[in-house]
């Protein structure tokens, strides 16, 4: 493909993207293909001869689109939203234009410096403590996902704890023994990425029980830590979640801070989904706890109109992260900026060496919408969820909403006049019929034995009409299911 053909195909592709967003509502949200569908329609070997673009492009229409679940659809209410936006797509186009691999400052100064600047901007917009900013001992970095943020902060916490033992004169085999006694904590609602991080890091892990609102409480933390210390374990890391995946529950962060006071336990706040809401004044009350933590992470790719991937991690003392993740620099990486400590080398803040120029899309999004536009986006989403909540609240004979609707998520289940087992069955039937219908996509969960349907609006294209449509569909399906179950 030469530059003139790229120009032609590039314009066509942008037209196709626009058409996709204009017609998105007409697509069935959930892909209906069977596993292995693509293998059946694609050749078994690499094509020997070059293929014309028309043929490649037409395969997008006929072979790829049928296997797409349309996350940007206004009728996508599943999981948590992963918003895209046009400025963000343009940011990724520029990133692809440069295609720099910004592992260290010298490899592309703009890539590193813009990242540090936009994360300081975001940190200030949220109201993070100045210790999280890059001009002190902390700073922000873009990770691919919240899972990576959890893993790297756990590694930083382990480094910090082992340093404490080194300072006491332990080394070699003694330190290895200490490592086997390290234990990390989350709750029974913490995202499984924490368990995965402990598996990778080969440390122990305990999921602590939550209260009736599915929040982790300080008293539970205190008791478990005391028990573990008495048994010879070394607590070193705890994750507090603001907006759990199941139910958007909020852990009692200030109480957890009190519970770990005087220990060397690292508190990481996972606000992958809900953290975006902190740009709005009504959520600033959460900062009291967050600002006492060692690290904080949110996914701009969930709630802030920034295309995947874009997980923003802030850390108060970057030295622990850098020391945990840096190696002796090979000769091919040596440069004067790194040597003099003047440039940031983000390869030492993450697992891989290579990294994309993701700050561009944040920069474009922040500037295009402004703080005001981003706040409007969050509030619009939360209001749509409230509308749904209020609508189904009008049918107490059909629906039970057991939890408050936090951060734009509504969990509900179908009421049964018989046993709770029947309610689980009814909820599952309604859930299956809703998704089989093809017009909408929701996800389910199970909490303390109760099946629930999760409703999380998120697409910027979703408006009140879509809420009315899903409510009507839900009502019809629920009445049908109840009628056939009688
Ligand atoms: N933490 C929470 C609270 C989440 O809701 C999720 C995903 O939904 C994750 C972590 C994992 O996010 P990621 O896919 O960015 O690793």
UniProtKB/TrEMBL annotation:
PROSITE patterns: DDC_GAD_HDC_YDC. Belongs to the group II decarboxylase family. GO terms for molecular function: carboxy-lyase activity; pyridoxal phosphate binding. It comes from the Eukaryota. This is Pyridoxal-dependent decarboxylase conserved domain-containing protein. It holds the Pfam family Pyridoxal_deC. SUPFAM superfamilies: PLP-dependent transferases (SSF53383). Keywords: Decarboxylase, Lyase, Pyridoxal phosphate. It comes from Glomus cerebriforme. The keyword Aminoacyl-tRNA synthetase does not apply. The keyword Lyase applies. One of its GO terms (cellular component) is cytoplasm. Its cofactor is pyridoxal 5'-phosphate. GO terms for biological process: amino acid metabolic process; carboxylic acid metabolic process. InterPro entries: Aromatic_deC, PyrdxlP-dep_de-COase, PyrdxlP-dep_Trfase, PyrdxlP-dep_Trfase_major, PyrdxlP-dep_Trfase_small, Pyridoxal-P_BS. The modification N6-(pyridoxal phosphate)lysine is found at residue 302.
């Amino acid at each position: 493909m030469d530059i003139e053909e790229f120009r032609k195909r590039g314009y066509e592709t942008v037209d196709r993207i626009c058409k996709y967003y204009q017609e998105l509502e007409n697509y069935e949200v959930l892909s209906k293909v069977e596993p292995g569908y693509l293998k059946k329609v694609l050749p078994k070997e690499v094509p020997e001869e070059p293929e014309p673009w028309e043929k490649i492009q037409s395969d997008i229409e006929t072979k790829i689109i049928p296997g797409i679940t349309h996350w940007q659809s206004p009728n996508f209410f599943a999981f948590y939203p992963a918003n895209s936006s046009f400025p963000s797509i343009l940011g990724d186009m520029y990133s692809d234009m440069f295609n720099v691999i910004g592992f260290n400052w010298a490899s592309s100064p703009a890539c590193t410096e813009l990242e540090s600047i936009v994360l300081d901007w975001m940190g200030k917009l949220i109201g993070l403590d100045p210790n999280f900013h890059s001009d002190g001992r902390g700073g922000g970095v873009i990770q691919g996902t919240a899972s990576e943020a959890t893993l790297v902060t756990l590694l930083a916490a382990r480094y910090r704890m082992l340093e404490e033992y080194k300072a006491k004169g332990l080394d070699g085999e003694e330190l290895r023994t200490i490592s086997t006694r390290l234990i990390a904590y989350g709750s029974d609602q913490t995202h499984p990425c924490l368990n995965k991080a402990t598996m990778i890091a080969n440390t122990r892990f305990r999921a602590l029980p939550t209260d009736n609102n599915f929040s982790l409480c300080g008293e539970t933390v205190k008791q478990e830590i005391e028990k573990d210390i008495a048994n010879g374990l070394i607590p070193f890391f705890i994750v507090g979640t603001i907006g759990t995946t199941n139910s958007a529950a909020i852990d009692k962060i200030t109480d957890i801070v009190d519970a770990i006071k005087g220990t060397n336990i690292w508190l990481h706040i996972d606000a992958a989904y809900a953290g975006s809401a902190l740009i709005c004044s009504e959520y600033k009350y959460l900062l009291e706890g967050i600002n006492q933590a060692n690290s904080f992470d949110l996914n701009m790719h969930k709630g802030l109109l920034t295309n995947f991937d874009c997980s923003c991690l802030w850390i108060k003392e970057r030295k622990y992260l850098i020391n945990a993740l840096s190696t002796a620099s090979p000769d091919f990486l040596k440069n004067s900026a790194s040597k003099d400590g003047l440039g940031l080398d983000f390869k030492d803040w993450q697992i891989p060496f290579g990294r994309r120029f993701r700050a561009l899309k944040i920069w474009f999004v922040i500037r295009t919408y402004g703080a005001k536009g981003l706040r409007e986006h969050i509030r619009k989403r939360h209001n749509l969820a409230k509308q749904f909540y209020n609508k189904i609240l009008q049918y107490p004979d059909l629906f039970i909403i057991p939890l408050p609707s936090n951060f734009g998520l509504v969990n509900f289940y179908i009421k049964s006049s018989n046993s709770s087992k029947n309610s689980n069955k009814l909820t599952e039937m309604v859930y299956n019929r809703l998704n089989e219908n093809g017009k909408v996509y929701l996800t389910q969960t199970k909490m303390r034995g109760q099946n629930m349907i999760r409703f999380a609006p998120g697409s910027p294209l979703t408006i009140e009409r879509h809420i009315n449509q899903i409510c009507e569909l839900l009502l019809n399906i629920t009445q049908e299911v109840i009628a056939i179950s009688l």
